[in-house]
Amino acid sequence: MEIFSYIDGFILILYLIIVLTLGFYYSRRNEDNYVDYFLAGRNIGWAAVGISIFATNISSEHFIGLAGAGSMRGLAVGQFELMAIFTLIFLGWFLAPVYFKSNVVTVPEFLELRFDIRIRKFFAAFSIVIYIFTKILVSLFAAGILFYNIFGLNIYASSILIVLITGLYSVTGGAKAVIKTQTFQGIVLILGAVILSVAGFIAVGGFGGLYSKLPSDFFTMFKPASDPDYPWTGIIFGAPIIAFWYWCTDQYIVQRLLSAKSVNDARKGTLLAAFLKLLPIFILVLPGLFAAVLFPESKGDSAYAALIYSDVLPLGLKGIVVAGLLAAIMSSLSGAFNSISVLFTNDYYKIRYPESSERKLVLVGRLATTAAVVGAILIVPLVKVISSQIYLFLQSVQSFVSPPITAVFLFGLFSKRLTSKTAITTLIVGEVIGIGRLVLQILQNNSVELHPVFIWILSINFLHFSIMLFLLSVSIILIMNLKEQAEKNSYALNLNSLVVENVSEFTSGIVAVKQNKKMNSNLVMSVVILVIIIGLWSLWN
């Protein structure tokens, strides 16, 4: 605690006061309005949508994981952030209008319109389980490591405290309180991360200091296909499969989109989030390289905490940086709690009790959020199953579960032939294989002796495994489509037409730009983002 001044402590307390004040202020008038509680009244502007998506995504595992991976292998881990940007642009231009015009509350409800209620229930239940392990558990584990390394706090005590504080306004306020606090938290986490990055950059002597003290391999973003962590083949073909599931089909992200007040706000907000996703390379990955130079003994998961603990930052600024960490953790947890609540209420309770009043549904939503908070506290002891290099662990888990969902969703959007039976079969078979691979990895991490065949399976890079599982899922769909007759689903036909219409709208926009020499703001932002990515690839290749 000697590294923390009274000014730093005051800043932390002030941050918590502002967050709780915002949370409780926007909790008003949510007593009996279903749309207000779960979708913030569908009245969120594009700036809040974009910052909320970014804040929901960035959590403690990004701070500790991206910096940790950067300190071990360099800039290559930033490729996951860049691949996410392409998917966000796709979401904004093509899927945002489809989601928005469908007038649904959840992604599983959207899938029921395309398929049937079995898909809706399966996807809702599966999403809740995944949130527990890839959102809540991983965030708490990373937060525990950070606060233990900085303050010496017990990992379980710090996790429980964070969950309780976040749960207070998540339960009472619903989506509006969550999104409004996330907007503030997004600004705080960016500010804190920028301050530490600038201080670290100065301490190492700029890029000249980095280039002279680190291996040249640290500045190569495209690794050989044989690389155990970041093969270029896996990055180009495997990472987008994971990204499509996460950004385009996950209620955790799409719920922010569905809360927008118009299609344009949804699209522009998504593009703003895509622009903000350029930041992690500079404010989260590069600090790992700074730590590798300044504190080589603290590489890996301790890298980011080592920078905070050191004298790189003057007293008074450390409070802002730690407030940024808290903001990242709390924004992601509140998003997970809110998503679990709406999935249970909308896709289970409301189906079973369709005559329930809006007031009762909001009450059920609050109870579901409370259950999620209690569940988060109960699973804290499970953090020991998580391996080191936490960001890679998170990506590997997602690579095992995302391919079947991505395959089914893409075929559901662009093919009229995909039937409900084929979709549910693909999901079940694909997820059994993916979860089986995850179980093998956990057993290996806990020193369990495995059969040579299983060891060989584990030797396949997780990104390459993601590609293989995606191709298997596509094969199942194509084979079953040959035997199954297309279902007569009027909404499926309308959905396909809507997708085609959005593609035509995008193409017409590009043609108009060429003819009239006039760009709208969305196209300008998309082009600027893509140019920056190409520039980064050219610089660090």
UniProtKB/TrEMBL annotation:
Single GO MF annotation: D-glucose:sodium symporter activity
Subcellular location per the Swiss-Prot or TrEMBL entry: Membrane
GO CC terms of this entry: plasma membrane
UniProt entry tagged with the keyword Membrane: yes
InterPro entries: Na/Glc_symporter_sf (IPR038377), Na/solute_symporter (IPR001734)
Keywords, sorted A to Z: Membrane, Transmembrane, Transmembrane helix
Family indicated by similarity: Belongs to the sodium:solute symporter (SSF) (TC 2.A.21) family.
Name of the protein this chain belongs to: Putative symporter
